[in-house]
């Protein structure tokens, strides 16, 4: 790269070409390079070289159009590069951003970064806007930080320049419902939003209904739905969806369908979440015919487009019914529906093909997942380890375990349980012991289940003395307070049949 730049950095005579200022031409060329490479790193390097070639003033930030670079990075989802640019030019209120500029950053940066951006708004001399608060609320709650949302609510209430909106009320009430479900506090906020002159919407009642159902106050929840209907609120189906989801969870499809009929009779259009709940209910009942009717007929009838969750539910339904071809047909329909597969999509396929003992297909699906740049999660690897371990392929299971580090994922108890189970099935006690030490190293503890299976792997191979030695090795690495909870299980596993207490 240095040699290329040195060749390019020749002093040229012409500050402009064809009447176009050199800095503008360089910027246009660099934007073209960004479109071709999709990388802001290349984008910045190319821009630097172009400015040198055309003798632009590269010391001038305006000459580099860094704000446009920042927006291009965000548009192309290069958030790390965008943050670097912001740190170079925009922190502490520098950079001459407008409230709208800050709004874009609040939407796309992660929680910690967006909180810094929020503080920079005040440093810039601008006043906060309703949108600034709304976007920071949503960003905080994306990370399930309900406490942080409540702290921001207190700040908003004390901000003399911004009045809380209905959206703010709904967001904070949702955070309270999820964190403490303090019904008295929710009712007080509901009374306050009415006093502030706001008309509640379906999101407001969705939170209130959820709070009652979570507290098992079903009649109160139904009363709130009646109040909503009396108010003539038809903004959306959120409150009805809460009921439908609850009925589906309790396998009460009859009540779920009655609530759906009530929703449509009220003149409210069902959402894709409404249909996803019903689809999920039919899949739980293995009612594939009704599942297909909703997808093929009802979605069209109500002009509702499927989302990737819809597709995942259909795949799960076909998979558990053994119809692998239909599951793949639905998966392959994603592009024509304008949808991208999610992590859950691939996880469902991996589980389905694994249960069908189609292990070559499992590998193919995981390969497609990587090619699509869909990030696997810990559930992905638990599925892979479990499926290959179940059929005795310990080497492949260990291979996927080692892949966790590539994706910066920490194995959980389920991963180690799957590995130990495989060692037990294949009667490989030494490998089981290694897995226990991996578990101790990774999680700082082992469980009675994994340690018990390690002992069983030794004893059922006729190696009782080796089992005792392995236990002593493990014990030396386990804190005393943890060992107290493991001692009884281990002692029972190591006892000879004649030494075990008689069953009552």
Short description:
The chain is mostly helical.
SSE topology:
Layout: H1 2-8, E1 16-17, E2 20-21, H2 22-37, H3 40-53, H4 61-64, H5 66-75, H6 79-89, H7 99-108, H8 111-123, H9 130-142, H10 146-157, H11 166-179, H12 183-195, H13 202-214, H14 218-230, H15 238-249, H16 253-265, H17 272-284, H18 288-301, H19 308-320, H20 324-332, H21 343-355, H22 359-371, H23 378-390, H24 394-403, H25 413-426, H26 429-443, H27 448-459, H28 464-475, H29 480-494
Antiparallel strand pairs: 1-2
Helix pairs in contact: 2-3, 5-6, 7-8, 7-9, 8-9, 9-10, 9-11, 10-11, 11-12, 11-13, 12-13, 13-14, 13-15, 15-16, 15-17, 16-17, 17-18, 17-19, 18-19, 19-20, 19-21, 20-21, 21-22, 21-23, 23-24, 23-25, 24-25, 25-26, 25-27, 26-27, 27-28, 27-29, 28-29
* Estimated helix fraction: over 70%
The Rg value, from CA coordinates, equals 30 Å
Please count the helical segments.
Answer: 29
Largest sheet: 2 strands, antiparallel
Shape: globular
Which stretches of 5+ consecutive residues score pLDDT under 50? 1-64, 498-504
End-to-end separation: 79 Å
Describe the structure.
The protein is an all-alpha fold. Among the domains are: 1-89, no CATH class; 307-375, no CATH class; 380-494, Serine Threonine Protein Phosphatase 5, Tetratricopeptide repeat (Alpha Horseshoe). Helix content is 70%, strand content 1%. It has 29 helices and two strands. It has a two-stranded antiparallel ribbon. A hairpin with a 2-residue loop joins β1 (16-17) and β2. The relative contact order is 0.03. Mean pLDDT is 85; it is low at 1-64 and 498-504. This is TPR-like protein. Keywords: Repeat. PPR repeats lie at residues 201-235, 236-270, 271-306, 307-341, 342-376, 377-411.
């Amino acid at each position: 790269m240095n040699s290329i730049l040195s060749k390019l950095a020749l002093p040229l005579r012409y500050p402009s070409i064809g009447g176009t200022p050199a800095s503008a031409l360089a910027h246009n060329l660099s934007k073209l390079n960004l479109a071709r490479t999709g990388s802001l790193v290349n984008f910045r390097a190319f821009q630097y070289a172009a400015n040198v070639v055309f003798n632009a003033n590269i010391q001038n930030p305006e000459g580099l159009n860094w704000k446009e670079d920042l927006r291009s990075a965000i548009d192309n989802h290069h958030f790390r590069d965008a943050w670097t640019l912001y740190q170079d030019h925009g922190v502490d209120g520098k950079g001459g951003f407008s409230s709208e500029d800050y709004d874009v950053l609040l939407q796309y940066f992660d929680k910690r970064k967006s909180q810094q951006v929020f503080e920079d708004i005040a440093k810039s001399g601008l006043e906060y806007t309703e949108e600034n608060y709304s976007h920071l609320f949503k960003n905080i709650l994306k990370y399930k930080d309900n406490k942080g949302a409540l702290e921001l609510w207190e700040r908003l209430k004390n901000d003399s320049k911004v009045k809380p909106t209905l959206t703010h009320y709904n967001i904070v009430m949702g955070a309270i419902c999820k964190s403490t479900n303090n019904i008295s506090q929710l009712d007080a906020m509901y009374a306050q939003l009415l006093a502030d002159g706001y008309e509640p919407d379906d999101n407001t009642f969705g939170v209130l209904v959820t709070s009652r159902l979570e507290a098992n106050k079903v009649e109160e929840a139904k009363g709130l739905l009646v109040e909503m209907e009396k108010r003539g609120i038809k903004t959306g189906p959120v409150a009805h969806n809460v009921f439908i989801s609850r009925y589906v969870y309790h396998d009460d499809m009859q009540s779920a369908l009655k609530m759906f009929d009530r929703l449509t009779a009220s003149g409210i259009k069902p959402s894709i979440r409404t249909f996803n709940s019903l689809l999920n209910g039919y899949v739980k009942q293995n009612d594939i015919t009704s599942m297909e009717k909703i997808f093929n007929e009802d979605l069209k009838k109500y002009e509702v487009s499927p989302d990737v969750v819809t597709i995942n539910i259909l795949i799960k339904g076909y998979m558990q019914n053994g119809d692998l071809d239909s599951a793949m047909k639905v998966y392959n329909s994603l592009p024509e529906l304008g949808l991208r597969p999610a992590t859950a999509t691939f996880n469902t396929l991996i589980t389905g093909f694994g249960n069908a003992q189609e292990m070559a297909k499992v590998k193919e699906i995981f390969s497609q997942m990587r090619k699509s740049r869909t990030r696997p999660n810990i559930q992905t690897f638990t599925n892979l380890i479990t499926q290959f371990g179940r059929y005795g392929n310990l080497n492949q299971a260990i291979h996927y375990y080692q892949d966790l580090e590539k994706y910066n994922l920490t194995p959980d108890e389920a991963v180690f349980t799957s590995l130990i189970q495989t060692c037990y099935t294949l009667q490989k006690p030494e490998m089981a012991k290694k897995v226990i030490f991996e578990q101790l190293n990774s999680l700082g503890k082992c469980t009675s289940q994994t340690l018990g299976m390690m002992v069983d792997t030794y004893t059922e191979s006729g190696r009782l003395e080796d089992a005792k030695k392995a236990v002593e090795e493990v014990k030396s690495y386990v804190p005393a307070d943890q060992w107290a909870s493991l001692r009884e299980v281990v002692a029972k596993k190591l006892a000879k049949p004649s030494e075990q207490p008689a069953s009552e």
